[in-house]
Amino acid sequence: MITLRIAHRTTYRYRHPVSLNPHRLMLRPRESRDLRLISSEVTITPPATLTWSQDVFGNSVAVATFSNTADTLVIDSVAQLQLADDPWPIFDLEVRAMTYPFRYADDEQTDLGALMFQQYLDPTGRLRDWAWAFVRGVQTDTLALLKDLSAGVSLWIRYQSREDEGVQSPVETLDRGWGSCRDFAVLFVEAARCLGFGARIVSGYLFVAEGLKGSADAGSTHAWAEVYAPGAGWITFDPTNRSVGGQNLVPVAVARDLRQAMPVSGSFVGASDAFLGLSVEVAVTAEA
């Protein structure tokens, strides 16, 4: 286990004081067998009332409501946690799922629901054909297929960080040949769904290790994917870095669509030219 400290500051600046509508925050890391949360604190300036809940995926969600106008909004999140540090995880799939194609049990299909269906249009079958090209024969090893698919994303697509919000559709990413970590994750998830897998997007933090993409300074926000495999459960794939397993990854939110897992979202009431800019600072550091 390694102990990490994550400091995440989001700053909004306005030309003059504006009224702040409620803001939705997804900043608290997800606790699991591999992640033990020691502490988590959110501080907001101007002062806000925080109401906590869990969404349909079990993510921790805070809604901040404001009573005063402000020309600056600062949201500080600081978390301390312990993360499993296993570079070579072993995934024990059920016998029926070791070879692709396989069929999920009826209950699994019901529970996976929309996580098995594509969220982006593919009118010409561009993504479908790209995904099926990784299937090597009538039967193939399931884990090998998923690893090939994950590695294939970074072989086909050039990594390029993007400061603008939103995500490219998988077809856009294939056509452009470049994308950010969130574009890589969406492409992988949608391709896995094309092949009949239940898959979901994960948003969180990347702890810097030498050679990893999607990182800056001491750490960064990051996006990756999980695929459900009977017996093993949810298996982590980071197509940006061609890695399998959760080493160096701190999940905050899982979702059907990346738009459901934004760290901070909200709006304001003011003049159309009131917004001056947004800055995000993230530091993920190891503690002794």
From TrEMBL:
Residue runs in coiled coils: none
Span of domain Transglutaminase-like: 173-241
UniProt-listed Gene3D superfamilies: 3.10.620.30
Top-level division of the source organism's lineage: Bacteria
InterPro entries: Bac_transglu_N (IPR013589), Papain-like_cys_pep_sf (IPR038765), Transglutaminase-like (IPR002931)
SMART domains according to UniProt: TGc
The name this protein goes by in its record: Transglutaminase
Species name: Rhodoblastus sphagnicola
